[in-house]
Amino acid sequence: MKFAHLADTHLGYRQYGLIEREEDFYNAFEDIINKIIEENPDFLIHSGDLFEFSKPSPNALLIFQEQFLKLKDNGIPVYAIAGNHDILMRKNAIPPQVLFKKLGLNLISPKNPYFIYDDVFIGGCPYHSKLQVDSLKNSLNHLSKEAENYSKKILVIHQGIDKYLPWEYELEIADIPQNFDYYACGHVHTRIIDDFGGGKLAYSGSLEIWKANELGDYVKKNKGFYSVEMSNDSVKVEPVNIELQREFIIKNIQYSQFDDEIQELQSYILKLNAKPIVNLTVEGGNFNRGDVYEKVNTELFDISLKIRPVFKSEDILNDEKLIENIATLDPKELLAEKLEVFDNEDIVKLAIELLNNLSNDKLEESEKISNKFFKEYFEDLDISEIEFDDFEIEEANLFSYDDESKNSPDKDLNNFTDVDNDIIEKRNNDQT
Ligand SMILES: [Mn+2]
Question: Catalytic amino acids?
């Protein structure tokens, strides 16, 4: 039995506001679906963040519809869950995947937590935020029991796990039931294949370079999907790569070699098939930014899709060295230090959670965290009651997306949660 695993396609993402980048994602998606059809798997699993927004543009919806119908014509069923980008954290919100249920998309949701394909159990959960982790753990344990009688078991999730995302995770690796053969994960945009339980745990990574800091992983491991071969006693995961049409260039130039290096870069770019995105840093020496900027533009503007220049003259570099020497500049450490007077770990935890959420404009989440803290500390309430209330709210908020659900009026497009962005950045910073 063979299946394909794909995740984090983010259809509709318009990087740097460029229509060309939106189209790059669509083209990459089409390439991937063509490759999947070539591979002819028994089915395809999509582990969430199918779309960039929970209210995708008609273009993004149409691209998915086309490719989905192509899979259907080729007899390849699709199983999917909603990721954090697909879900709007509002009452009665439904993810866009629901639109394709009647066309045959198998949407794994709290109401339909698993499907059976021959002797294969395919179960999973949509994205759960940190606040909903207890309910997520319950669902995982429930799925683990339901799966027991099947010879092949697949778990589909869209979460950060501490082992792979130590800065921002919802699940600890120990929270995950061990009796599945394949863990089809989404959320982390880098590509990971690991041994877990008796099988494999895998993040197939994002479709395209969603953030410039995914570039390192892309250079090493490419982008694409996983082809998974499953027999009764083994699981083999084979990455299948697609070629991205456009290059992302990251180049550091010493100002003393500026003229030569910029010429070299220009002749490199002229050989490419598509205009690249150029992340250019000019550093060292004392130079006038305006002059350098003008030269960069003259040489590279017409032949690049986007130039993202950073100028670090000698003075700026010296300032940076000064900052590097101050060990406690990590805002989290500074916060913790300030709050030592309270001698209360919960207060430090609250402050750090608020910092994380507020720096990502997650106001609703922050409000929830604050209210919960306030109730636990200052209201004479049974904590178990609060947990129960939270659970009820979650159920209403997230998990009622069957076809009959009513959509709530006028939701704000800017309210989508943008977790990955920050996570991947932290992860990469952490690694480098
Ligand atoms: Mn994502």
Answer: 85
